[in-house]
What does this fold into?
Amino acid sequence: RKAAEDAALADKIRKSDGVYFVGGDQGRITKALVREDGTHTAALDAVWDLYRRGGVIAGSSAGAAIMSSTMFSNPKAILAMLQTGIADGKELAPGLGFIGDDIFVDQHLLVRGRFARMIPAMMAKGYQIGLGIDEDSAMVVTAKREVEIIGYKGAMLIDLTRAETDKENPNFNVSNVSISYLDRGDKFNIATRMFIPSTDKAGGRLDPLHPSSRGAVFSNDVLGNSAVVDLMERLIDSDQQEAVGIASGNPRIDKTDMGFEFRFTKTPESVGYVSAVADAYSILNIRLDIRPIELYRPLYKYR
It folds into this structure.
């Protein structure tokens, strides 16, 4: 905090071409750069000056979380968050907002199943659009708000514009979420909502009349490592109209438990692209409905 008010350091930042925020605890970043009364320190003002004149702001993990105006702060496990809700001011805190006040950002998204925690957080704070990036991957956002995915994997785009909840149900639920998977090389414009597939997928739009697989599509652990993308890939290129994923806890506890059903449905707006050079898909506009379910335990017994 003392260094953040150093005039010489602020001047050095202001004259730089870019700033990179490292991983760790995003709360340490914001506490160092934002005064207790909510105003900017000299260092943060300098970062914003650099950014406004065209400098690059980048970050990994915690350094990505601070890019939106709201970020997670000491959150519960994902299933517990769905079961008990999110406490604003405790599990959600102000970020630095470089991407704008209208976009929610999360990270480690696919390998840790964090797409499911983005949705209640976005609902709690009134966000319509969320972008979640996976590990070893990056979202490059230009001044024209065009997002390009680079790196090993990709990002989830969550759109709550038409989402609804059943207010008579006291448990977390939501319907008509639009969820998309943007693969490496894909581009998406936040302002226009236009999608451009990577060059290797430009001619690879999937034909829904000629699917490559048949039979039920489901996952018993939709919060598992990359499970949601695997489910969406299998659905978009199958003869099925919907897929179901289950989020649940310990299968051996001896009591009734609450889990959640994630129902993915193809709509007339759903589109899939497949790469001509790799086993890679881009998937747009899958409808997602989430509702609480009662799980009977134990899930299995030995024979």
